[in-house]
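Many introductory courses stop at the sequence. We go one step further.
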Amino acid sequence: MNIGEAARASSLPTKTIRYYEQIGLIKPAARSGGNYRVYDEAEVQELRFIHRARRLGFSVGEVAELLDLWRNRSRSSRQVKALAARHLEDVDAKIAALEAMRDTLNDLLERCHGDARPDCPILADLAGQGGASYPAPDKID
């Protein structure tokens, strides 16, 4: 199948498939007589694997490791689990950071009156002034 068909079958944009080939994540596709990329079902399955791993947040480097493990039938599942566990730790850290961000934004929103007054805890916090008042933007040099 051509790259458009492979893209539809794997849910990846053609540009992404070309990029993965360029960086060596996938092997260069075979070429037709007209120099078009040609993919077989095994290569499309590999593209689906990559797509799923990327949707789970694995980096391109981690996907390369996972692909190597997937291709290696003598691997131990211990290696795969360790990689996935490290990734889960990263995901948990990102979730914690997002929750802290959400809590801060929620706190700032609760403290902001949202009325005609010029005082705004949100802007004061962004300016590093906490709850202190701040000069109006047209008064700042």
